[in-house]
Design goal:
Blueprint (H helix, E strand, L loop, with lengths): L6 E2 L6 E2 L2 E4 L13 H14 L3 E3 L9 H9 L8 E6 L1 E4 L2 E4 L3 H15 L6 E4 L8 H13 L6 E4 L3 H10 L2 E7 L11 H8 L2 E5 L31 H21 L3 H11 L5 E5 L3 H8 L8 H14 L10
Parallel strand pairs: 3-4, 3-12, 4-5, 5-8, 8-9, 9-10, 10-11, 11-12
Antiparallel strand pairs: 1-2, 6-7
This protein binds NADP nicotinamide-adenine-dinucleotide phosphate.
Length: 324
Amino acid sequence: MSNTDRRPLGNSGFEIAPVALGCWPIAGVTTLGTNDADSLATIRACFDLGINHLDTAYVYGPNGESEMLIRKAIEGRRDEMVIATKGGIHFEGDKMAGDARPETLHRECEESLRRLGTDRVELYYLHSPDEVTPIEQSAAAIRELIEAGKVRSAGLCNASLEQIQAFHSVCPLAAVQLPYNMLQRGIEQETMPWCGEQGVAVMVYWVLMKGLLAGKLPRDYQFDPADSRLKYPMYQGDEWQRNQDLVDRLREIADSAGWSVPQLVTAWTLAQSGVTAALCGAKRPDQIRESAAALDVELTGVQLAEIDQALAERGEAVSNRNFK
Ligand SMILES: NC(=O)c1ccc[n+]([C@@H]2O[C@H](COP(=O)([O-])OP(=O)(O)OC[C@H]3O[C@@H](n4cnc5c(N)ncnc54)[C@H](OP(=O)(O)O)[C@@H]3O)[C@@H](O)[C@H]2O)c1
């Protein structure tokens, strides 16, 4: 399948471009230096870039800032977008907390629809199973939301294969959403093959590992102490240095093709057979433009082999979240 082709969003009947806009950075919680003008321009840029899928969540912003920006940005053009939002995580003070109980999902979904200014979303995810609610109960709640016409299809994020299967047995899934990038490939083992067999779309996040794989953070980059990326092992000590070595190799490969590093990395992601779409986070239009440029290119066998070689030299990285 070419990158310019729309891909089925599982069994939902919707089709999406394989690059989607991840709308977490615009919430301005962990991403520094966001502002509404850039955020609105970033969302609006999607119309020209051929991106028709926006990924947000109830918890993207303490007061739903991400959902409300989407409403404003797509006013008058809502039907051109396949919107995904999520429930089951909320803010308590400045911390996030999980609550995947059915009544919570019903309430949060209503509020998300209000913030988005719409009567339905095309995809509604359980953001994460919580520690006490049986996942079957959360799945049944999302099935009810589908039956009520508020949600067109179901998704599940941050779950093991066992949890995915349990959810799917109660409420058939259109999509799962999990972390995946060049340095974090655990889901290739079990989850991707199972989803492929079942026709469940695999939507991957952290394609650029929050900027590390965009190739624009120099080795000696002075992180603001408030930069939340510092908590990830990939941004620390020897892991950081080895990841920078990898980025140097990727830059050589990208340069020789006349591409940017984000373009190369996103194109590699789209070339992985188990991946339906890359959720690319951005806070400015130039960022999503670079990721969307992956839609226009396809890696050659030689380039793929060079990347494989670079990854083999890098060796296994310490993952930030482990799913198989
Ligand atoms: N379901 C879940 O639990 C879950 C978890 C995480 C993410 N997600 C979804 O997946 C999306 C993607 O994840 P993410 O946004 O956390 O991470 P990401 O896509 O790996 O990285 C996004 C960050 O990378 C930097 N970046 C992007 N394009 C760039 C470019 N061309 N040049 C330089 N830097 C660039 C920007 O950071 P700076 O400008 O700040 O450097 C941007 O905020 C999210 O927005 C969200 O929709 C879901």
